[in-house]
């Protein structure tokens, strides 16, 4: 990604995460929110590993943290049913 696009991409990502947080807080369609977060994390991790692997200080820890986060997200989503 060209450097000039980095800041707008980070702003868009941050806004997307804020919208997702609002969705989760609303309690509506929890499974959809968990699925959206799973897709977003897969996209971010995939992009990070594909294009910026050298900048990820602890890749195994990053994956472990994200898997733990998704486990909690899915546990909460499935507990709503």
List the helices and strands and how they pair.
Layout: H1 3-26, H2 30-51, H3 59-79
Written account of the structure:
Helices cover 83% and strands 0% of the residues. The chain is mainly α. It has one domain (3-79). The chain is flat and about 40 Å long.
Q: What's the quick description here?
A:
83% of the residues lie in helices and 0% in strands. The chain is mostly helical and 81 residues long. The protein has one domain.
Tags for this model:
mainly alpha, 3 helices, 83% helix, flat
Poorly predicted residue ranges: none
Structural class: mainly alpha
Q: What's the pLDDT, averaged over the residues? A: 90
Specify Rg, calculated over alpha carbons.
14 Å
Provide the succession of SSEs. Answer: HHH
Q: Provide the β-strand percentage band.
A: under 5%
